Amino acid sequence: MYGVGMGRSTGPPINGKRVWRERLRLRLTQAQLGQRCAELGYEMDQTHISRIENGTIRHPSRRALQPLAGALGLQVSDLQTGDADDEPERAVA
After folding, report:
1. What is the pTM of this model?
2. In this structure, what CATH number is given to the domain that contains residue 31?
3. What is the pLDDT of residue 81?
4. Number of CB atoms found within 10 A of residue 37's CB
């Protein structure tokens, strides 16, 4: 259930650790965050969220950015802040 653009650099780079930290702040699992994204118009499964958080996917599709940011209560630009090499030590599902 990956989004369109998986594996392609179609959107601007985002900070996966920021996604990880915000998800944990909201006390969401990766699956719950994916469900929130789906409710906002873009389906992402737990694996896709994990790959964003651990930096495997640094450029999610442009269609995914707004729902991801919205699901975290952020603006797209908020996902682009921070050190690009700043990776989570361990993603928690």
Report:
1. 0.77
2. 1.10.260.40
3. 72
4. 24
